[in-house]
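Hello Y.,

Per our agreement to keep a running log of every chain we model this quarter, I'm adding this entry. I've kept the format consistent with earlier entries: sequence first, then predicted structure.
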Amino acid sequence: MLDCAIVGGGPAGLTAGLYATRGGLKNVVLFEMGLPGGQITQSSEIENYPGFFDHTKTGMDFMNTWQEQCFHFGLKHEMVKVERVVKTEDHFTLMLEGGKSVEAKTVIVCTGSTPKRAGFKGEEEFFGRGVSTCATCDGFFYKDKPVTVLGGGDTALEEAIYLSNICSNVYLVHRRDRFRAAPSTVERAESKPNIHFVLDSVVEEVTGDASGVTQVHVRNLKTDEKRTLDTPGIFVFVGHNVNNEVLKDETGNFICDVNEWGQVKVDLRMRTNVEGLYAAGDLRIDAPKQVVCAAGDGATAALEVIAYIQEEA
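Predicted structure for the entry above:
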């Protein structure tokens, strides 16, 4: 039986594996279908991770060193899909693809979330080259330049406000004439002179060249009028898909408490309401969706696992 099974190989999962193995646990396995690293491996440049300021390194380069360090201390990697986590009397059973299973004393789930795509033409082609889903990560690359933000919820407006302090102009595109965001957030956005509202409109296409996006093409849903925004970047905030399928039982019900968006409810120690089950990173409630925060979550969860196993021994 494993001391700890870690599901998901992003920053949270890798850090959990590092702390668990260095903390003395012998049988720790990271279950990740592909190469560990997570969404950050898609980034072309990393600027906001403390102590890492090498502009020649990509997100993939950045995460490669994490893998080497974690595996050096004994973390094992199983390239197999976990379909479901089952809680038994005093341990967990991980149901694996192909009908196999493995038992574990504790489980840390770090499967993250995936930003929803808006579906406009060119979104996939220019993703990472002008199309972004993280203003904190990529906003500085557009310092003193105009950008477009797509969305109408709290996240979209908050990120537009954040970008307005960096970029020359922010064009906020929303398909309705009213926002879903909190009134106080809307007021803050309206108070920013360089945020321009493009309402009742959708983004139909982004175009560009080898260097990335150069134009965002917008259509007004009421008048059918088309407009071109000359911005080298567009930030898409239309929600996240929480990767929580492994926490559902055979009937589709969650084995632990989640909120209305399917994010796992945890305390400050990353503990769910199920003893021995932890969640870390973007999967949990109120996740900042930053690498440094996910890593902190993973470390916290691993330290709790060590304490839990020591208490049970």
